[in-house]
Design a protein that fits this description.
CATH topology of the largest domain: Rossmann fold
CATH class of the largest domain: Alpha Beta
CATH superfamily of the largest domain: P-loop containing nucleotide triphosphate hydrolases
Structural class: alpha/beta
Number of helices: 8
Number of domains: 2
Strand content: 25-35%
Strand order of the largest sheet: 6-7-8-3-9-10
Order of helices and strands: EEEHEEHEHHHEHEHEEH
Shape: globular
Length: about 250
Amino acid sequence: MIGTGESLLLRAIGLTKTFAGDGMPVRAVRGADLAVRPGEFVAITGPSGSGKSTLLHMLGGLERPTGGQIWLDGRRVDGLSQARWAVLRRTHIGFVFQFFNLVSNMTVADNVELAALMGGATRKEAAARRNDLLAELGLAAKADAAPARLSGGEQQRVALARAMANRPSLLLADEPTGNLDSAASQSVLRLLAQAHRGGQAILLVTHDLRVASAADRVISLFDGMVIDDAPVAAPHGPMPVREVIRLRG
């Protein structure tokens, strides 16, 4: 676990989320604590329904917590308005979704450039970032294509370029390989590792422990609770969730 005295980019303290269910409230996240250092690559893993995506969406301001605190770069942000969260996402946070969420009536180039413009870049700066990212991700030849004409792996690379266009200090990725085949998944993981080597902090949600092993550290969720937090470099790697549950049960 990370000590409170260390420099942290992101920290969640006692984070909870309860949804109104069909007659019974659903506690999707229950008292989650986590932290991410600047430039660190952290994976959140766990079985389907364990609260992974809900937790990530709260950390990115897409869901409001029921309780707890979120601190970003030393500033408490969980009580911000949606308008202020939108500014944070444009300037400090990049988001990569499982289903790409590209603007269908815009070209690949325009999808990426728009993100840079919304982050405050001038038109000249946005065009330069767009060109650099598309070249870096092997998409320069697809710049004028519509997203629907791309493969799933190509669309996810465009989504990654868009998330990186505002040069965020934190990149949040929600199951970015969930809809991709093995080759496309490896390509996206290589790109994330490359962004990590460039100094970006990454918080990635995945149900696949093989994908999680690309991170520096793995946080395991079960039934909305953090049950393990271990470095990937540990002697035997992070303990599988089922083993943690067996030992603690």
